Amino acid sequence: MRVLLLGGGGREHALALRLAEDASVTELICAPGNPGIAGIAQQRQVDIVDPSAVAALAVEEAADLVVIGPEAPLVAGVADAVRAKGIAVFGPSAEAARLEGSKTFAKDVMTAAAVPTARAYTCTDEVGTAQALDEFGPPYVVKNDGLAAGKGVVVTDDRAVALAHARDCGRVVVEEYLAGPEVSLFVVTDGEAAVPLLPAQDFKRVGDGDTGPNTGGMGAYAPLPWSPTGLVDEVMRDVVHPTLAEMRRRGTPFAGLLYVGLAITAAGPRVIEFNARFGDPETQVVLALLDTPLAGLLHAAATGTLAEHPPLRWRDGAAVTVVVAAEAYPAKPRTGDVITGADRPGVIHAGTVRRAADGALLSAGGRVLCATATGVDLAAARDAAYDLVRGIELPGAHHRTDIAAAAIEGRIAVP
Ligand code: AMP
Ligand code: GLY
C-alpha cells in the first residue's frame, strides 16, 4: 500500500521508521517530513492544516492510507477531507478530535461516560477562577481550554501564579490536583474495537527531579516495571470503552489514536487528559518495542476492521528516549545552531532542518533530537540512550539526566 504520513516531528520520524519496515508498504511519502525522515521516505511540501490541500495531495499520490501525526490538522478537519475522497485515514474527525482540542468538551464526555477524572470547573473570569482555586486548594491546576501543544497547563502552589495564567488564557479549566505517577496509554481504535499499546511514561517538566516549567515532554520509557497488574485492562474497561461508547452515542465516533494520560492515584487511575494522536516522545519508545507491522494495524483501524486484526506482538526488553532540547527551551528556544553527531541509528529528528547552502544540519525547534535506544532491560536501554546523547553536539543544548532512573531504582510508588 501507498502511505502518506503527515507531520515532521520526532513522532513522525518514529512512525516513518516503522511504516517503512512494514513489507505491505510499497511507497512511503511524508509531508513535510524532516531531515531524519529524508532517508526513509519521499517528502512533499503541503500546508498540513489545509484540509483541501492535504486531500488533493492524497489523491495525487494515490494514497491507500493517510496517517495524521499532529493534532492541529485533526482539529482543522484534515481527516474528514481525506475520508471524503474515499481514502482510508488514520486519525479522528474534527468533531471527535475535540477530545483533545477542548478540555471542557473532554470533561463533558468523561462526565457523561462516568470516566474517573479530576473534578473541574470551566472559568472565564477572575471571580470564578478564584472560587474554583479556593475550593480545590493547592497545588493549583489551571489549564488553557484550547490546544496548547502540551504547554497550556500550570501546576503551582502559588495562587497568584495560577490566577495570572488564567488571565493570560481567558478561558480555563481549573481542576483538582491528582497525586500519583503518570502513565501514557495509547489505544488504536476504529471507533468500536480498541487495542491498547504498551503503557509508557513521559517526563513533562524541563528539569531533573521534575523541576521547572512543563514542556512537550523531555523523555520517555517503556514498559513500566512499577505499573499495577491489571492496569491496562482496568483503563480499557473504565475509561476507553465508555468514552468510545459515548462518542458513538453522540454520532461522532472516535477512530484513530486515543491517547489516555493518567495519574495512578490512591483511588485508582484517573484521566488527566485525552489526546487525539500519538504522544511525543512516548511514541519513540512504544513503537521501538512493537513487532507487529504498523501499517497493517493503522489500516485496520482506518477501515473499521480492527476486530479482525491479530493480537499485537511485542519485542522483549525495554526502550528509553532522551530529548535533546535547544538552549532556552521551553521559554524561547534558540534555533539555527549547527548539530553534529545526529546521523546515527536511534537518533530521531524532532526539530531540525538542512541548510540549503551546504547541507549542514541545524536546530529548528525547541525539542531538537530524541536519542532512542532499546536494551534487554530498562537499565541497558537507558545506558544506550545516554551514549547516543553524548555523541550529539549542539551548542547550548540541554537534556534531562534522570529519564527512567527512578523506575530502574525502584523509586516509583503507587500511593
Ligand atoms: P495536560 O496538558 O492536561 O496533559 O497537563 C500537562 C501536565 O500537567 C500533566 O502531564 C501533569 O503532569 C500535569 N497535570 C495536569 N493536570 C493535572 C492534575 N489534575 N493533577 C496533577 N497534575 C496535573
Ligand atoms: N508527550 C506528551 C504529548 O504528546 O502530549
Automatic annotation (TrEMBL):
<comment type="pathway">
    <text>Purine metabolism; IMP biosynthesis via de novo pathway; N(1)-(5-phospho-D-ribosyl)glycinamide from 5-phospho-alpha-D-ribose 1-diphosphate: step 2/2.</text>
</comment>
<dbReference type="GO" id="GO:0006189">
    <property type="term" value="P:'de novo' IMP biosynthetic process"/>
</dbReference>
<dbReference type="InterPro" id="IPR000115">
    <property type="entry name" value="PRibGlycinamide_synth"/>
</dbReference>
<dbReference type="InterPro" id="IPR011054">
    <property type="entry name" value="Rudment_hybrid_motif"/>
</dbReference>
<dbReference type="InterPro" id="IPR020562">
    <property type="entry name" value="PRibGlycinamide_synth_N"/>
</dbReference>
<protein>
    <recommendedName>
        <fullName>Phosphoribosylamine--glycine ligase</fullName>
        <ecNumber>6.3.4.13</ecNumber>
    </recommendedName>
</protein>
<dbReference type="GO" id="GO:0004637">
    <property type="term" value="F:phosphoribosylamine-glycine ligase activity"/>
</dbReference>
<dbReference type="GO" id="GO:0046872">
    <property type="term" value="F:metal ion binding"/>
</dbReference>
<dbReference type="InterPro" id="IPR016185">
    <property type="entry name" value="PreATP-grasp_dom_sf"/>
</dbReference>
<dbReference type="Pfam" id="PF02844">
    <property type="entry name" value="GARS_N"/>
</dbReference>
<dbReference type="InterPro" id="IPR020561">
    <property type="entry name" value="PRibGlycinamid_synth_ATP-grasp"/>
</dbReference>
<dbReference type="InterPro" id="IPR020560">
    <property type="entry name" value="PRibGlycinamide_synth_C-dom"/>
</dbReference>
<keyword id="KW-0658">Purine biosynthesis</keyword>
<comment type="similarity">
    <text>Belongs to the GARS family.</text>
</comment>
<feature type="domain" description="ATP-grasp">
    <location>
        <begin position="107"/>
        <end position="303"/>
    </location>
</feature>
<dbReference type="InterPro" id="IPR011761">
    <property type="entry name" value="ATP-grasp"/>
</dbReference>
<dbReference type="InterPro" id="IPR020559">
    <property type="entry name" value="PRibGlycinamide_synth_CS"/>
</dbReference>
<keyword id="KW-0067">ATP-binding</keyword>
<dbReference type="GO" id="GO:0009113">
    <property type="term" value="P:purine nucleobase biosynthetic process"/>
</dbReference>
<dbReference type="Pfam" id="PF01071">
    <property type="entry name" value="GARS_A"/>
</dbReference>
<dbReference type="GO" id="GO:0005524">
    <property type="term" value="F:ATP binding"/>
</dbReference>
<dbReference type="InterPro" id="IPR037123">
    <property type="entry name" value="PRibGlycinamide_synth_C_sf"/>
</dbReference>
<keyword id="KW-0436">Ligase</keyword>
<dbReference type="InterPro" id="IPR013815">
    <property type="entry name" value="ATP_grasp_subdomain_1"/>
</dbReference>
<dbReference type="Pfam" id="PF02843">
    <property type="entry name" value="GARS_C"/>
</dbReference>
<keyword id="KW-0547">Nucleotide-binding</keyword>
